[in-house]
Amino acid sequence: MNKKSLRDVELTGKRILMRVDFNVPIQEGAISDDTRIQAALPSIRYILEQGASLTLMSHLGRPKGKGYEAAFSLQPVAAHLAKVLGRPVAFAPDCLAADEQVAALKPGDVLLLENTRFYKEEEAKVKTDEMTDEEYKAKKAELKEKQKRMAQKLASYGDVFVNDAFGSAHRAHASTAVVCQYIGVSVAGFLLEKEIKYLGNAVNNPERPFVAILGGAKVSDKLAVVNNLLDKVDTLIIGGGMAYTFLKAQGHDVGNSLCEMDQLDYAREMLAKAKANGKTLLLPVDNVAADKFDAAAATQVVGNDIPEGWMALDIGPQTVAAYTAAIHEAKTVVWNGPMGCFEMKPFAAGTLGICHAVADSGAISIIGGGDSVSAVNQSGLAAKMTHISTGGGASLEFLEGKVLPGVAALTDK
């Protein structure tokens, strides 16, 4: 990575402003899963050990951007962070009115700002409903100016900006990218550095054979990913709902399975590209089909043609075996997206089988995407994976070959 990281700057006595991803599930005022908080702790502890003060900022959920909403307040996160850190964490109830609290911070002190998305200018997103082009341009310009002022205010809280929120690095928001324009130096935290290292090496300099596994519901969600990875992988494995668009493109009957008719030409293009490039593209050879989308549905294992009135909701045992064999040949594996509707027990075997295959492969294994991460955590095999990404959308855009604004804005080495 050609961007400065925490180790490249002097922190002692400095005011550090750090963007974290504390977008965690909160139920009845308590954090139900603190994985993202735990992921930020190495950077937080390092900064405090270096004798700096620390102001943290994050978003939580999708508030309307019109001010305070209790359901999206980060105040419970401040209390939870204080427990896991073992030190007090102050809380600023307005992220743009925290000057006095920031000024009062001493080395070793921690302050968490309220949800940055309580301000619409954080995202500067314009809804285009019933709006002319002229009105859209005027509104966008107005919001961009407000976003600039928000970023300037946030930047005034620190001498050094640290981005450790990979999950938001694909967004050009006030607190992720624009803030970098108004602060002396901007660096990557340890988590962001680790994400870029593993994903970057996998995409640009993988140990071979390089196998990518793509699943999930729709081909349209992963158009650019499939296209980009076919230039880089040795084998591309496809499962989940998106597989049935590919099977339909090959002339198979898919019954009531999820199939994007408007993506059939694209699927044919990708099948042709794989063949022309000498790449292996694996599709299911058998499937677990159901007569309805229900955990209590009648099921049967069928081949590549799904009977009329039935829908494929998981890959079958022969497919798991074929995919496992390809994965065990790999030196690098990237996995994004489940193989079926794993949330329902009758359709979880395919995804669980891939979890075991990746865990047992001995390859460098990188897991990205919320559903894939959930599946790995549920399988109890997370400790056997080399790297589990904290950013679903960000990891997907990275695999597409896109530049992430939150990374591009950091200071070059």
Give an overview of the whole structure.
The protein is of the alpha/beta class and 413 residues long. The protein has two domains: 6-191, Phosphoglycerate kinase, N-terminal domain (Rossmann fold); 206-400, Rossmann fold, CATH 3.40.50.1260. It contains 13 helices and 17 strands. The chain has a six-stranded parallel β-sheet. A six-stranded parallel β-sheet has the order 11-10-9-15-16-17, with helices on both faces. It has a three-stranded antiparallel β-sheet with strand order 13-12-14. A hairpin with a 2-residue loop joins strand 2 and strand 3 (30-31). It is globular. The termini are close together. 48% of the residues are buried.
Task: Write a short abstract of this structure.
This protein has 413 residues and is an alpha/beta fold.
Give me the Rg, rounded.
Answer: 23 Å
- Major pleated sheet: 6 strands, parallel
Terminal residue distance: 9 Å
Strand content: 15-25%
Can you give keywords for this protein?
413 residues, alpha/beta, Rossmann fold, 2 domains, six-stranded parallel β-sheet, 13 helices, 17 strands
